[in-house]
Write a sequence for this structure.
């Protein structure tokens, strides 16, 4: 019995010792780091992550170290370097980093934030922020159906990560709710074709030829190819083709085809992470974004008539109040079933 | 579903296949020339990427697509230069240097793009096309194949020129000897190092034009990492083509056609998991490799450094 008690005490001491580094870091969090696969100037995923981290860090008085443009390969050396440089929280801002980051986080005893792995949550060590703007994407679907002249809208994605699946399915649901007879065409550019701008243009042109006059595009660098396709092609009805972007605001580079964007603001997410690290409660829950707190919003552009925008505002209020329920479907199968279930011809 | 497959949609699919396949054709053709001369050019992805970057920059600043393609060729040759110096002249490992060149070019082009275009993301206007009288009016394939930018026809012509050079010229013979029996070529009084250097620079030029095509015609914009592995697919095409440029053409068009087929299947709402559909181009290339590549014979001296007088 005495031996068992001693063993128990030793195990307790070991577990306390194991938690000690993160607890120490929590007490004196002075620096956080964010790693992104592409440049922080893409008016999208990467820029949103970096800008939000800087804003959250500034608000909390914490230094933010940025390592961007790292590509989609092995980032373990960069993760180690960030940890050695004193980062008390590392935000691994790419689904492709969600295996390496927890590994290095455990090795270096630094808490990490990852995406697309909600199951990987671990107290003191790992939290997920598979943020989904599905509520905003639902509104974008309603908007697209209202604005489409051809009765066909398209979804182009450069991969099928969970957050994009949630937005794709919400967009299709929104379009269908607005106009039950609408056709929603869906195509993936390629496996993890995030920077394949030529592929983005090629697939978007195919969807335009299939009748789509509103394209809901989700892709990092590839979204510039999608934008190029809508700018250089007319719809099958002879009118302009419009683009609905996600995450960022491409208004500064718009040539007249940007209809809207499901804009994310990750600052509240990162601010909550910093707060949790300081409080020692990091890793006890995951993080999300929503319409209610303004971390997701639909972008208003000059191409949206005022009366349509007023309708969108009313729909937004209904989503926030719960009158319209928008569920997030993170799996690709849900997207395929939903799109396949839609009419295939006009 | 029948209403989906309109002429416009089918045309876009055929056009998509051609647009996706052409950079692969140029990369594969370039790789084939290097391999023929005994140089395993793993750096072709980097040559394409630099070609894409420089091609875009020149086309954007001058407003000339042709100067853009020339810029792309120069960009590809600039990346080929270290390969020539380090591998052919100094005898360093071709695979290691090739990978280093690709990684280095990825970083360099991303950095240059960051400072030049990261805030503005300029896009090019559509490249003018050259319709072929009679053929361009054909339904579906007419606008997709015979109303294309002139560079497309030149790329196809390059296949015939390469085949002619391989089969019927002294240069073709020298390239083959540099890859198979460099000592024999040396004994015949031809400088092996010069022949191999010429081959690698030609590869750089072709791959660079392929990259420039992606940026100018394929996307109308340059973004970092945009070649997305096309150079490596070009290497596979060259290896399965067994020294025959027409097999490179067939492989590149097959890959492009499969990419278009994946889009068609998805747009039609075919109930197959996307991952399976996305595997189609790669599976098709693998299948062709298994069926037709078994008798592939690579040059005997491929990847080896030639030293005059060494045994």
């Amino acid at each position: 019995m005495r031996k068992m008690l001693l063993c128990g005490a030793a195990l307790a001491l070991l577990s306390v010792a194991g938690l000690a580094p993160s607890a120490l870091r929590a007490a004196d969090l002075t620096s956080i780091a964010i790693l992104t696969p592409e440049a922080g100037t893409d008016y999208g995923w990467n820029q949103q992550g970096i800008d939000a981290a800087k804003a959250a860090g500034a608000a909390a008085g914490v230094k933010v170290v940025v390592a961007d443009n790292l590509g989609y390969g092995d980032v373990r050396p960069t993760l180690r370097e960030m940890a050695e440089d004193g980062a008390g929280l590392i935000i691994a801002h790419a689904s492709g980093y969600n295996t390496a980051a927890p590994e290095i986080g455990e090795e270096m005893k630094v808490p990490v934030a990852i995406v697309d792995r909600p199951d990987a949550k671990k107290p003191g060590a790992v939290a997920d922020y598979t943020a989904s703007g599905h509520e905003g994407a639902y509104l974008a679907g309603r908007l697209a159906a209202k604005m489409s002249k051809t009765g066909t809208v398209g979804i182009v994605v450069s991969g099928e990560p969970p957050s994009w699946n949630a937005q794709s399915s919400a967009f299709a649901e929104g379009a269908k709710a607005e106009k039950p007879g609408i056709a929603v065409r869906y195509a993936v550019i390629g496996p993890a074709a995030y920077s394949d701008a030529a592929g983005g243009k090629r697939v978007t042109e195919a969807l335009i030829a299939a009748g789509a006059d509103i394209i809901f595009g989700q892709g990092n660098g590839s979204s510039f190819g999608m934008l190029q396709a809508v700018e250089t092609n007319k719809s099958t009805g002879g009118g302009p083709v419009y683009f609905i972007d996600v995450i960022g605001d491409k208004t500064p580079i718009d040539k007249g085809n940007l209809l809207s964007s499901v804009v994310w603001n990750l600052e509240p997410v990162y601010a909550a992470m910093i707060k949790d690290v300081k409080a020692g409660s990091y890793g006890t829950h995951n993080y999300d974004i929503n319409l209610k707190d303004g971390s997701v919003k639909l972008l208003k552009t000059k191409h949206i008539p005022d009366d349509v925008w007023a309708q969108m505002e009313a729909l937004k209020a209904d989503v926030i109040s719960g009158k319209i329920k928008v569920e997030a479907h993170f799996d690709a199968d849900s997207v395929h079933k939903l799109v396949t279930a839609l009419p295939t011809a006009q | 579903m029948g209403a989906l497959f309109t002429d416009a949609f089918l045309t876009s699919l055929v056009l998509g296949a051609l647009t996706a396949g052409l950079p692969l054709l140029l990369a594969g053709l370039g790789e084939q020339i290097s391999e023929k001369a005994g140089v395993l050019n793993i750096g072709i992805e980097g040559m394409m990427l630099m070609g894409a970057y420089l091609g875009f920059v020149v086309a954007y600043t001058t407003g000339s697509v042709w100067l853009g393609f020339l810029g792309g060729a120069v960009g590809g040759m600039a990346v080929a230069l270290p390969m020539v110096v380090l591998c052919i002249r100094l005898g360093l490992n071709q695979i290691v240097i090739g990978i280093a060149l690709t990684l280095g070019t990825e970083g360099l082009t991303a950095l240059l793009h960051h400072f030049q275009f990261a805030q503005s993301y300029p896009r090019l206007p559509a490249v003018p096309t050259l319709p072929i009288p009679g053929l361009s009016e054909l339904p579906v394939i007419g606008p997709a194949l015979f109303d294309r930018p002139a560079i497309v026809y030149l790329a196809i012509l390059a296949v015939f020129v390469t085949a002619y050079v391989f089969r019927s010229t002294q240069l073709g013979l020298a390239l083959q000897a540099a890859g198979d029996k460099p000592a024999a070529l040396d004994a015949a009084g031809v400088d092996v190092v010069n022949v191999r250097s010429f081959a690698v620079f030609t590869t750089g030029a072709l791959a660079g034009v392929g990259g420039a095509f992606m940026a100018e015609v394929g996307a109308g914009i340059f973004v970092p990492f945009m070649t997305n592995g096309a150079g490596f697919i070009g290497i596979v095409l060259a290896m399965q083509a067994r020294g025959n440029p027409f097999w490179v053409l067939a492989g590149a068009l097959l890959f492009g056609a499969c990419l278009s087929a994946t889009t068609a299947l998805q747009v039609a709402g075919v109930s197959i998991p996307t991952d399976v559909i996305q595997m189609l181009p790669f599976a098709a290339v693998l299948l062709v490799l298994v069926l037709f590549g078994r008798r592939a014979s690579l040059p005997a001296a491929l990847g080896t450094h030639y030293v005059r007088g060494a045994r």
In short: Chain B touches chain A through 56 residues (CB under 8 Å). The mean pLDDT of chain B is 90. The longest strand of chain B covers residues 130-131.
